Model the fold of this input.
Amino acid sequence: MRSLLMKNPVVIGASWIAAYIVIILFPLFILLLYPPTPSNERSFLLEFSAALGFIGLAMMAMQFALTARINRIEASYGVDLILQFHRYTSIVAFLFLLAHPIILFINNPETLQLLNFFQAPWRARAAVIATLALIAIIVTSIWRKQLNIGYENWRIAHGILAVIIVSFGLGHVLGVLNYLSLFWKAVIWTGIAIAALWLLIYIRLVKPYFMLKKTLLGGSCNSPTR
Done:
């Protein structure tokens, strides 16, 4: 009975989704350990905004894993379904990250001055750059054909924009400190970002290199000897 359940596609799908939710929420739970003690009470909207921002950033980091062509996941559902899930979760992450500053502005309209790119602190500039890159990646992904962007050009731009989003997003949260004021928390979040970037480098550069090397070696081995 147990083996049948483990082979059931619904059970497998529910297990992967549950694992995905746990992974993206885990970094947020880390932040709740030894929470900061601000001098003034932070409002619920401010805390909710921060939570959405952290969850959205974790989801964006997870997008690298979803496109890393993990064999066990591919064997369960195939590439097409995984990429479809990647698109949907990207949109959800986009909404979370976009809601983060909007709620912040509603909670404290004075923070709108952070949009003044040239006078704002660097942590705010990093947030603006990450947000613009996020908007660009969503627009070019949904309307790629309408914008006449070739697949290879889009693929390269997609990877570059994804790196900008995660890198500048991490720079933003490290600059704000607050929840990452403890060194070990900053190390964990930095490690998450580095792992995500490594997955991109692996799937785009390292893996193709070894596949090409294997093909060339295979061809040379099969070629007739003189």
Remarks:
- The helical segments are 2-7, 9-32, 44-66, 71-77, 79-107, 122-142, 151-176, 183-222.
- The two ends are 59 Å apart (CA to CA).
- The mean pLDDT is 83.
- DSSP finds eight helices and no strands in the chain.
